Amino acid sequence: NAGVTQTPKFRILKIGQSMTLQCTQDMNHNYMYWYRQDPGMGLKLIYYSVGAGITDKGEVPNGYNVSRSTTEDFPLRLELAAPSQTSVYFCATSGILASQETQYFGPGTRLLVL
Amino acid sequence: ILNVEQSPQSLHVQEGDSTNFTCSFPSSNFYALHWYRWETAKSPEALFVMTLNGDEKKKGRISATLNTKEGYSYLYIKGSQPEDSATYLCAPTHGSGNTGKLIFGQGTTLQVKP
Fold first, then answer.
1. Do the strands A87-94 and B45-50 form a parallel or antiparallel pair, or are they unpaired?
2. Contacts of A43 in chain B (CB under 8 A)
């Protein structure tokens, strides 16, 4: 099992460009999450999904969009990249017990917006 | 917005020292408390999930306790080793909805000198 995979590993964007960060899991987990790493601030939740077709906002959703058409995939979309979105993005999943289960993190996508 | 505080922010110890850090969180509507270990340039890895007041968990030289009534958790490392150097994140979940939404503290960064 690959677990949680993220692509790309690293990307440089120009201000105003758009891109999609991919997240795929083969753990058959219902719950999936997107976080961003802000220096000195730990991890902030951007969006999450409790199952295919269901998504909701986290702490810092502005500037991002998500979709969840399958159990396996949870892409994160940046429509108009801004320097403030320079960060490392982590996708994570958890099983049916959600809050009482550990989350499994992908390797991260490092994004630089110039 | 939940306020999750971790202290100290950073810690430098000698190999063999024992150490502990604190995670403080709102006690109302508490659901579960997660601890993660995060090495530089890697993904966060789960250490513990605790739910009950008075819970104690242990994994090798690392242990954690939970007080849900006063809203804090302690993480202990006995006989620190250089490989314990990492950032330790805590994240409570609150509310009745089982969404797995974690609100992370800013972390405690531990550096163990050989």
1. unpaired
2. 44, 89, 91, 102, 104
Sheet of B56-59, strands arranged across? B5-7, B19-24, B72-77, B62-67, B56-59
CB contact under 8 A, B99 and A45: no
Nearest residue to B32 via CA among A57, A56, A101? A101
Which DSSP category does A59 fall into? S
Amino acid at B35: W
In percent, how much of chain B has pLDDT > 70? 96
Is A45's CB within 8 Å of B101's CB? yes
Q: Note whether B99 contacts A50, CB cutoff 8 Å.
A: yes
| In A1-114, beta strands by DSSP E | 4-7, 10-13, 19-25, 31-38, 42-51, 54-57, 64-66, 76-78, 87-94, 104-105, 109-113
**Cβ–Cβ under 8 Å, residues B61 and B78:** yes
For each of chain A's 114 residues, which pLDDT tens digit applies?
Answer: 779 999 999 999 999 999 999 999 999 999 999 999 987 778 999 999 999 999 999 999 999 999 999 999 999 999 999 999 999 999 999 987 777 788 999 999 999 999
Phi-psi region of A3 (alpha: psi -120 to 50; beta: other; left: phi over 0): left
